[in-house]
């Protein structure tokens, strides 16, 4: 088994974070996105969507998409649970992880991919080229501001995104905000004290360094 990865990309980082929290050591293969290696014929054959991460199993099966890779790893290595150990917990964690992805992660991608000069013509990931739309970058930043405000409200009442236990929802939210800080220079609001406290706790976890 091996993980096709790119060190600075946020989606592979989500999987590495998940793996680290599970105590899993899976070999990685770097797909150099800066050199557009995701479009090379060999990688296209592995993943026609031309995205990372991809988990390649020993029999050659290729699994892409972060939640799906994590679900596979959770099923294979259920302890410690990061996606819930009962039907109710799985549903609640899945709901919050989906919200973190829709409201936060996709907003960050909207802002980054529609503004960085190096991504001109690559406003969406995948095999097709799409022009940047500057208004979407502006909207993405506003969505991220709203995301941080809403998440701060949530974290006033609970220690973690999906409840009192650390889960994949925390990974998605943390990687999103850390990426936004690095690429968009978008700091956590000073007044969002609950968000600041949560961010510091998650940053201290082993997976945050993965």
TrEMBL record:
Keywords (A to Z) from UniProt: Transferase
GO MF terms held by the record: transferase activity
Presence of keyword Transferase: yes
Residue ranges occupied by any GST C-terminal domain in the UniProt entry: 86-210
InterPro entries: Glutathione-S-Trfase_C-like, Glutathione-S-Trfase_C_sf, Glutathione_S-Trfase, Glutathione_S-Trfase_N, Gtt2-like_N, Thioredoxin-like_sf
SUPFAM superfamilies: GST C-terminal domain-like, Thioredoxin-like
Chain ranges of the GST N-terminal domain: 1-81
Organism domain of life: Bacteria
Name of this protein: Glutathione S-transferase
Organism annotation: Gluconacetobacter dulcium
Taxonomic lineage of the native organism: Bacteria, Pseudomonadati, Pseudomonadota, Alphaproteobacteria, Acetobacterales
